[in-house]
């Protein structure tokens, strides 16, 4: 986002909308609702308290500056969490608590229609698809919800979230089609039946906003009536609404995170969205062609293993700034200000209610730039790192009548705890922070840490602090004119991630030290804290007056009162104990793909005899439809068997096929392998890869057919297609075989097709595929593999074992993680001797995704979500379905468990239902 100067008219167009999409019925209005009920804009003031299902009706509105909740301005800081990417409902609470602690006040929730609907008219909101449970959990963790049920959500999900059966349904592909609209309306009505019960306006939940896809005005009007009839009354966001909504996509690093979000702030945006707050996984056949790897978004601030990453600090700081400093909920363009060095672009904003000024500085050059900037009537020397951005403020109240004149550090939070006013500022480790306060009366500063220095001159207090690595510096300021004390805190990025403000019904709390603060409860004279530690750490608590005792995760903590007016732990909190994971051994192996044998009984398979298709891929003239979706097989691998008659003299076979990214095809003739073909290149740009596999019959096979007197009568062509995913925006493109051609003969072909069995009622439609082992439960717990061959899994394999086809491996293992430890465990596959193979990973019957060892030299890591993974002295079943091209050993390579992260703390985890073979 460029920060070039906008005209006032352009700025007003961006920030001045008075309507947020649609305002639907009930207590919701599209007009500003001043707190006093008087006309005019709502003044800047304290934000609304944390939301909850409190049983009280609430008003939600919008003026040209921000959301208004019960007449109070709310800067929305929302991050997306896709519940379907974390198939363990217990862990939804964990991630929501982390998001709240890291400054988010809202969670963006996209719903994947294909997760909930395996067939037309069939909808499932149970188990890992329990929307009601998710919304209750969001309310319990005091997070607003921005609900986005689609129907099309993008999000790198197969077909953009649309169900597989819709690819072959009647009607067109777009929302203007009547048949599509009927299906979409049914889906939204099912969602709305749940969402309506959790609307914040009703006091029964925290659903604050509702996002829809409705680019056409006629469709939007009809959708308005649909939502109103379903009881949806919260404001609605849609693609055509001229609303200042700032959404940042994936970022390379923390500097880019700062640039993107500060650019939105510079535009006057107060509705902020982090596109991926939590990464999660694209387990099963969930991911679209654009996201073929199991890890959905490796750039997310909280990764798929629920660990914080290096992109989190700026989000944490900005989230708490918008949550605890109301001056930033109403910003207007102010007179232009320029830095002395033109490489630094500047946007100058002001809050007309409070007089606070904000300066957003951006440096797009490859070098750090030090320049002067006029702030607060003074030319201030500031440094903006290369390809980074900074936010500075002047005129910001800092307690007891003192005002920030200027600072070379960024404000993070300002809050009052008892008789203490606390303001925290952040900057880069190694820099010298310079902060100047306008003081109406001569202050009495006290340096509480050795790093700080101060001087008072002509009504201004100058404080300088060298910012250390992961260190917090405190300066206390008192005055004879007030009984309130001001405490200044200075932190670098690492130290800021150990600062945890928290709002309780009895007042605000600030905690410093642990890796995470989940909850704070005031109970008489005791503050009860729960959270996580990773390493040994100190604990410092600023709490309301009357609080004298502290507990941490239920254990009493010995404290003393510090000079910073905090309760300071006498001893450090313990870190997480070391965990040792078991080696994976005891493997058993069995080969499959009997479908390739000429005498395999395929009489129960579907005859591929359709002549027309609703696919956008043309059906070859005069030939049958072979597209998998037309026969009801929408996910995973699909088998074809073609019985060829009149095949005497056959010399080669050409198989045209169409897949998503990383698709492949294997073929056999009368049980003899013809070869493997993988798609390549960039595809067609819409998520489809079309290829033609040309196989010349091996000389030995041609000779054997020539010598056999019945060779020309018939033969069986068996084809396995790993069809992978539908494109996000081109879901009707064919998947599977398209056509077959022959050289040396012109046989007649009668085709049969077989894909996945009936959808798993617990794990959902995207869990299974069409491999023989999947159809017969080889991936499930409880399957009797006692007669399988016992093998060491080294990945090398004996040379004579090399074969084209599918080989299954199974083992069991146990973990014994202490109940007070939250361990995130991953499964690592390293191709090694299995180079050239694909491995589908199943944990307790859940499809965790595919490792493409034939396309990468890098190990693949699969997050094993707790709940699906049994961590408390219980057995886990691990199954691997390995597709081998015959050139490599059939094993998956080296396989091991890896501890991705652990903490002392966490949330209680309930086992996810994982039914075994019956």
TrEMBL record:
Residues 33-54 are annotated as: Disordered. PROSITE patterns: TAT (PS51318). It is an enzyme of class 3 (hydrolase). Residues 33-42 have a biased composition (Low complexity). The lineage of its organism: Bacteria, Bacillati, Actinomycetota, Actinomycetes, Kitasatosporales. Gene3D superfamilies: Beta-galactosidase, domain 2 (2.102.20.10), Beta-galactosidase, domain 3 (2.60.390.10), Galactose-binding domain-like (2.60.120.260), Glycosidases (3.20.20.80). Keywords: Glycoprotein, Glycosidase, Hydrolase, Signal. Its EC number is 3.2.1.23. It catalyses: Hydrolysis of terminal non-reducing beta-D-galactose residues in beta-D-galactosides. Belongs to the glycosyl hydrolase 35 family. This is beta-galactosidase. InterPro entries: Betagal_dom2, Betagal_dom2_sf, BetaGal_dom3, BetaGal_dom3_sf, BetaGal_jelly_roll_dom, Galactose-bd-like_sf, GH, Gly_Hdrlase_35_cat. Residues 325-499 form the Beta-galactosidase domain. The keyword Signal applies.
């Amino acid at each position: 986002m460029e920060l070039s100067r906008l005209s006032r008219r352009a700025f007003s167009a961006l920030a001045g909308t008075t309507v947020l999409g649609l305002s639907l019925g009930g207590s919701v209005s599209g007009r500003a609702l001043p707190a006093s009920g008087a006309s005019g804009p709502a003044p800047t003031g304290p934000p609304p308290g944390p939301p909850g299902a409190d049983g009280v009706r609430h008003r939600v509105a919008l003026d040209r500056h921000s959301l208004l909740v019960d007449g109070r301005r709310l800067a929305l800081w929302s991050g997306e969490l896709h519940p379907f990417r974390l198939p363990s409902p217990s862990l939804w609470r964990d991630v929501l608590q982390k998001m709240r602690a890291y400054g988010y006040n809202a969670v963006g929730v996209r719903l994947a229609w294909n997760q909930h609907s395996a067939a037309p008219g069939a909808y499932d909101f149970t188990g890992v698809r329990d929307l009601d449970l998710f919304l209750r959990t969001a309310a319990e963790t005091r997070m607003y919800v921005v609900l986005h049920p689609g129907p099309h959500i993008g999000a790198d999900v197969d077909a953009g979230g649309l169900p597989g059966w819709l690819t072959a349904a009647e009607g067109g592909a777009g929302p203007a089609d009547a048949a599509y609209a009927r299906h979409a309306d049914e889906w939204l009505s099912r969602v709305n039946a749940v969402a309506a019960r959790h609307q914040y306006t009703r006091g029964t939940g925290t659903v604050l906003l509702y996002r829809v896809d409705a680019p056409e005005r006629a469709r939007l009007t009809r959708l308005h009536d649909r939502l109103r009839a379903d009881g949806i009354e919260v404001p609605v966001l849609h693609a055509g609404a001229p609303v200042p909504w700032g959404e940042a996509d994936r970022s390379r690093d923390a500097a880019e995170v700062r640039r993107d979000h500060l650019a939105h702030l510079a535009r006057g945006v107060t509705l902020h969205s982090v596109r991926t707050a939590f990464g999660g996984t694209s387990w099963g056949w969930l991911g679209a062609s654009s996201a073929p790897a199991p890890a959905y978004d490796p750039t997310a601030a909280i990764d798929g293993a629920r660990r914080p990453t290096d992109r989190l600090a700026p989000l944490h700081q900005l989230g708490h700034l918008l949550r605890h400093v109301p001056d930033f909920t109403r910003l207007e363009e102010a007179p232009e200000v320029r830095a002395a060095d033109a490489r630094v672009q500047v946007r100058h904003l002001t809050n007309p209610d409070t007089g606070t000024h904000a300066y957003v500085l951006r440096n797009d050059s490859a070098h750090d730039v030090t320049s002067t900037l006029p702030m607060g009537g003074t030319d201030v020397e500031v440094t903006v790192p290369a390809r980074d951005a900074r936010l500075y403020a002047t005129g910001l109240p800092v307690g007891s009548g003192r005002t920030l004149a200027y600072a070379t550090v960024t404000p993070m939070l300002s809050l009052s705890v008892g008789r203490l006013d606390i303001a925290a500022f952040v900057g880069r480790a190694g820099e010298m922070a310079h902060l100047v306060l306008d003081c109406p009366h001569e202050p009495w500063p006290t340096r509480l840490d050795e790093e700080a220095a101060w001087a008072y001159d002509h009504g201004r207090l100058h404080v300088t602090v060298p910012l250390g690595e992961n260190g917090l510096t405190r300066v206390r300021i008192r005055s004879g004119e007030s009984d309130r004390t001001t405490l200044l805190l200075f932190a670098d990025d690492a130290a800021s991630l150990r600062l945890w403000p928290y709002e309780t019904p009895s007042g605000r709390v600030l905690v410093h030290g642990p890796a995470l603060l989940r909850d704070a409860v005031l109970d008489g004279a005791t503050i009860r804290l729960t959270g996580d530690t990773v390493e040994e750490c100190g604990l410092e608590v600023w709490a309301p007056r009357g609080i004298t005792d502290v507990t941490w995760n239920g254990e009493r903590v010995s404290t003393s009162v510090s000079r910073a007016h905090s309760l300071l732990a006498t001893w450090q909190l313990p870190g997480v104990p070391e965990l040792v994971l078991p080696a994976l051994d005891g493997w058993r192996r069995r080969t499959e793909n009997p479908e390739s044998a000429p005498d395999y009984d395929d009489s129960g398979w579907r005859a591929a005899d359709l002549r027309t298709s609703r696919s956008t891929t043309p059906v070859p003239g005069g030939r049958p439809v072979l597209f998998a979706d037309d026969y009801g097989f929408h996910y995973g691998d699909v088998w074809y068997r073609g019985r060829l008659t009149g095949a005497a003299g056959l010399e080669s076979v050409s198989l045209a096929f169409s897949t998503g990214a990383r698709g492949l095809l294997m073929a056999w003739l009368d049980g003899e392998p013809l070869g493997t073909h993988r798609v390549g290149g960039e595809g067609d740009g819409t998520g489809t890869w079309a290829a033609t596999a040309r196989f010349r019959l091996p000389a030995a096979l041609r000779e054997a057919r020539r010598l056999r007197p019945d060779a020309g009568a018939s033969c069986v062509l068996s084809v396995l297609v790993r069809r992978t995913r539908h494109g996000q925006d081109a879901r009707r493109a064919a998947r599977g075989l398209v056509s077959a051609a022959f050289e040396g003969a012109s046989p007649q072909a009668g085709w049969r097709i077989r894909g996945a069995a009936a959808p798993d009622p617990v794990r959902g439609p995207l869990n299974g595929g069409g491999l023989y082992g999947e159809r017969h439960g080889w991936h499930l717990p409880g399957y009797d593999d006692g007669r399988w061959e016992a093998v060491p899994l080294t990945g090398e394999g004996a040379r004579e074992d090399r074969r084209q086809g599918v080989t299954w491996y199974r083992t069991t293992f146990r973990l014994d993680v202490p109940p007070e430890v939250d361990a995130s465990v991953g499964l690592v596959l390293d191709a090694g001797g299995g180079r050239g193979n694909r491995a589908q990973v199943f944990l307790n019957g859940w499809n965790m995704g595919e490792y493409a060892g034939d396309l990468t030299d890098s190990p693949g890591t699969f997050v094993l979500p707790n709940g699906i993974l049994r961590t408390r002295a219980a057995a886990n079943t691990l199954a691997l379905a390995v597709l081998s091209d015959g050139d490599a050993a059939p094993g998956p390579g080296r396989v091991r468990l890896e501890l991705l992260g652990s903490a002392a703390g966490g949330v209680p985890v309930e086992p996810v239902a994982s039914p075994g073979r019956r």
